[in-house]
Amino acid sequence: MYRLLLYLTLPACAFLLWGCGEGPSSLHGTAAGVADLSVPAPTTDNFSDEYPWGGAQAYYARQMETAIRLLDSMAVLHASKTTDSAVLRSVFREARRAFKRAEAYGSYLNPEIGHRANGPALPVFTDDSQRVLQPLGLQKVEETLFEGETYPGALYQEIRITRGLLRNLLGYIRKHPPTPKRYFISQHQQLMRVASLSITGFDTPVSLWGLDEAAVSLESMLQVYEIVLQRQIRQTEPGLDDRFVSALQDAVAYLRSGRDFMAFNRYEFLRDRFNPMMRAWVAIRKASGLWDGEEAGPFNMDAPTFFEPDSFNASFFMPVNNSRITDAQVLLGEKLFYDPNLSKSGTMSCASCHLPEQAWADGRVASPDNVGLPLERNTPTLVNSIFQQAFFWDGRSDDIMAQIRSVFTNEKEFDSGVHTFSDAILQDTSYIRLFEEAYSGVPTRNREVIKALSAYISTLTGMDSRFDRNIRGEETTLTESEIRGFNLFSGKALCATCHFLPLTNGTVPPFFLETEKEVIGVPETAANAAWDADPGFYTQFEEPIHLGMFKTPTVRNAAQTAPYMHNGVYATLEQVIEFYNLGGGTGLGFDLEHQTLPFDELQLTAREISDLTAFIRTLDDLPPSPDAKQKQSPNL
Fold this sequence. Notes:
Blueprint: H1 12-18, H2 53-80, H3 85-109, H4 111-117, E1 124-126, E2 131-133, H5 138-147, H6 154-175, H7 180-198, H8 210-228, H9 230-236, H10 238-255, H11 266-288, H12 327-337, H13 400-409, H14 430-439, H15 447-457, H16 466-471, H17 480-489, E3 517-519, H18 538-541, E4 549-551, H19 573-581, H20 584-587, H21 606-616, H22 626-632
Antiparallel strand pairs: 1-2, 3-4
């Protein structure tokens, strides 16, 4: 059963060209910090011999060429119809390894094609043509190799198309030599792939080669470092070079220690191997003096691990016209958040449904509307909501400002529109000063109100939980049950293949340009007798594969935000885990042609369910409530 990842940015024509090995030039550079190809790339002549960028470019090109040749060999072997499947799998494994060595730079240069080349074997929905395009790429080849062809000639066709994707990436590598910024961001992205995709099995869901491929990625990182930077770092910071190389080799050795994929201790690997290596790598980037780490897209390049309170840039997830927020705008937004005069009735504020004391949710199955009747869906938490690219349970809004505008125009909520500013707000004269400081004047429309609200909500983050402090090595307070729970979350239970580490939501690393939506078959009631009738994302395009599709939410603070699911059907975490354990709606007996869960049943034991629950409770970290902040800073 396929998990469906919805792309709304890729034109259908791109896929028609990929099989020929050439992609449209318009596909690169879709987000700041993802790929900067807007100016001609400097040649290696612009750098001294100390920084041999041409050598790194040649390395990546050779590895991609090797992957392409191995796919060619697979096609020939398959066409002979005499080759044992084990031989084909062996050749394919080497092709994947070669791709992994080049993935960091090739996929940085062209994120869309890079993700399709090694993304999940999922159909893709295109918004321009409203077509559903069939799965392709290395993971689709893997699925066919291990599970069999769905039609005669399928494997050959999949190899041919995947070869075209890799040829496209090779063309980008040859055309665009590395620069310091490209180099460091691409390595950061590959480290994120190791931590969130490879070791969880997302990259290789059938073969489970993820641990080996994580080791290959790190070995490639070391090889390119030796080409590009090691000479300089040895001269200026020899101890730092030793620390980085030793930590990386230690991480590779741990990955290659022969542990079974399901039994692999991901907690120990991340805490004791991966994080020390990453800290040294961040220090190397700073010591090199080659790039200041600015404009790095979703990443704070100075954060020593991916589990810091400030590892991610909230501004990356904001609309372009509101990405440079100020303290004055946040202060205004906070005051507006609690003001019922934003609504036409004067009785409903943002805090009517998102209560700080309820983890910025409200603890109800459904919040009441502006006349006291229940709204259609459960109220999700606002904490860490900025770190996503789809809003509302059905994901119909692409950004946080669009979500807030919808609340203003919804006749069941604020019902006040976005074009007319409510003078009732100015009954509190302090707003005049706040608007002057934030936007140089009192507005005539609600545009600045919406901007200020989104600015405030973007500060409601919590990435310093007890789990985070332990995985950073600052505490040793996790119990054995909680550690087992994390290893289940990122291993056997497959939670992290949808709730991606470290954010634990559906925003897909390492580019963070889209947020997954899934069809999981949530029941109408906790009796699990019938499928809930809410169509979800289906209402946007009326495409059958979207029926019952909802956004993947964060698991952080889940212990504080019951009840669960879009309809609030489950009251406890144990009920939620048991739902997945049974195989979602299909496992409950519902007829769901397009369920997207990547498993039938998890076969978790009672102890494993208890361990998972214990781990999820370690993810609590809520921003301070207004009352708490007032006590901390009486002058606010």
